[in-house]
Amino acid sequence: MTNIAIFVSGNGTNCENIIRYFQNSDIAKVSLVISNKADAYALTRAKNLNVPSMVASKSQFNDEKFLLPILKEYNIDFIVLAGFLLMVPSYLINEYDHKMINIHPAILKKYGGKGMYGHHIHEAVKAAGEKETGITIHYVNEICDGGEIIKQYSTPIAPEDTVEDIEEKVHVLEQTYFPSVIEAAIIKQQ
Question: Which of 13, 83, 100, 157 is a Cys-bridge partner for 79, taking CB atoms 3.0 to 4.6 Å apart?
């Protein structure tokens, strides 16, 4: 059984979806949720689903003497970034090489990098007049949104779609595909 830690910064809809997906799995389970924000609703979602959770500040995330012992205590084998807004420190990337994945709410190589998260991405996609958008699930490396791409899924955008419409279409893709891609990546590691 692979133990997953989810790193989050916000609302946690993907976090909850992943927890629920693996609740009755023989392959993996979500064993820990960690947020860099004490007011992240994802922490409430984790608590409601009986998954241990904690808050770690940016400096604590960057301190391997703080974070690695916690991950080892929970026997964490795999890390999922689900709306996590901090850059991952190199010690974690090295420790979890090809065992840490992120979801990005756009098609990479477009609309990635510093400042490209959440609503900002959907606004940029709309402003550029794109005919499609999507999600990219990728391994995490030292480059922001630069890791090896695992899977991409796209959805069409109509000219009359608002930024909120685009965001909802991306959310549907996230909810539909992210958990099964995590599962496939874990199986590949086993």
Answer: 100
